[in-house]
């Protein structure tokens, strides 16, 4: 056993080893083999599938069930008004361009599709990602205040901080009807966004709100960071209309 070597076929990115060590129920080293660089690694595919499953489950990306169709770059319908958004999404998937990418536009224009496609590209590349639909995220954070919760808001925020990419879908949804968000909601979102903004972390987000609406409903500080016009943030306006309405009319 002392001469056991890591198989060169095993995934070798630092991020995957860190993720596996923190999340696998057995030590990652036990997944090694004695095949060496010239031998046959019987566990290569098994290891890669295991890591891929863990990354996907951990990501919270939508459409993960076998009966669901995943949203990818390949099945994104490119219409006039969406070209720039697709190009920006693909740049982020290649780790190019600004670290923060935002999609602006009305419901149904493909914002969530592109967010999911970006997130899936990160998982495929064995990078960690967390995809959060913002109303669900806020519910999760609120639940930490219940007596039977074994997690705190800070712990969940730190866990999200550890991901290579954070995806926030539908920032501000519903508040244009209910009125400005409470200070606690604004604080939680600002905490997540500001950490990425200040430290150069990757963030992809989508919203239906204009800058003025974001300032009014979600706070000036959050809007200031998301609408930063420096090289930190790439904002793309999607004007291609409602995909869902178009499909409904076609049927």
Describe the protein's topology.
Layout: H1 14-23, H2 44-59, H3 83-93, E1 100-104, H4 111-124, E2 129-133, H5 134-143, H6 153-161, E3 165-169, H7 175-178, H8 183-199, E4 202-207, H9 211-218, H10 220-226, E5 233-237, H11 243-250
Helix pairs in contact: 2-4, 3-4, 8-10, 9-10
Could you give a quick summary of the protein structure above?
With 251 residues, the chain is of the alpha/beta class.
Description:
Helices cover 45% and strands 10% of the residues. It has a 5-stranded parallel beta sheet with strand order 2-3-4-1-5, with helices on both faces. The chain has 2 domains: 14-59, no CATH class; 83-250, Rossmann fold. It is globular, with a radius of gyration of 20 Å. 32% of the residues are buried. The model is unreliable at 1-12, 23-32 and 34-40 (pLDDT under 50). It has 251 residues and is of the alpha/beta class. It starts with 13 loop residues before the first helix and ends with a helix.
Which descriptors would you attach to this protein?
251 residues, alpha/beta, Rossmann fold, five-stranded parallel β-sheet, 11 helices
Q: Given the helix and strand composition, which structural class is it?
A: alpha/beta
- So what's the oligomer here? single chain
What value does the average pLDDT take?
84
Strand order of the largest sheet: 2-3-4-1-5
- Tell me the fraction of residues in β-strands, as a range: 5-15%
By CATH's scheme, which homologous superfamily of the largest domain applies? P-loop containing nucleotide triphosphate hydrolases
Largest sheet: 5 strands, parallel
In DSSP terms (H or I, runs of 4 or more residues), the helix count works out at 11
Task: State the total count of DSSP E strands.
Answer: 5
Task: Identify the CATH class of the largest domain.
Answer: Alpha Beta
Summarize the helix and strand pattern as letters: HHHEHEHHEHHEHHEH
């Amino acid at each position: 056993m002392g001469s056991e070597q890591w198989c060169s076929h095993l995934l070798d990115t630092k991020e995957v080893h860190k993720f596996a060590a923190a999340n696998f129920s057995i030590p990652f080293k036990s997944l090694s083999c004695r095949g060496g660089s010239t031998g046959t690694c019987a566990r290569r595919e098994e290891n890669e599938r295991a890591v891929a499953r863990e990354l996907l489950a951990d990501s919270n990306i939508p459409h993960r069930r076998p009966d669901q169709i995943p949203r990818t770059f390949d099945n994104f319908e490119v219409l006039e008004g969406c070209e720039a958004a697709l190009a920006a999404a693909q740049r982020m998937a290649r780790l190019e361009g600004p670290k923060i990418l935002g999609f602006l536009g009305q419901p149904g224009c493909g914002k969530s599709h592109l967010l999911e496609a970006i997130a899936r590209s990160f998982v495929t590349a064995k990078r960690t990602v967390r995809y959060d639909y913002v109303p669900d995220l806020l519910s999760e954070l609120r639940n930490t205040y219940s007596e039977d919760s074994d997690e705190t808001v800070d712990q969940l925020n730190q866990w999200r901080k550890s991901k290579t990419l954070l995806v926030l879908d539908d920032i501000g949804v519903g508040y244009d009807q209910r009125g400005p968000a409470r200070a606690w909601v604004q604080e939680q979102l600002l905490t997540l966004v500001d950490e990425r903004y200040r430290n150069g972390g990757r963030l992809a987000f989508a919203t239906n709100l204009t800058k003025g609406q974001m300032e009014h409903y979600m706070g000036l500080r959050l809007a200031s960071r998301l609408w930063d016009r420096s090289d930190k943030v790439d904002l793309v306006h999607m004007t291609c209309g409602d995909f869902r309405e178009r499909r409904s009319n076609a049927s």
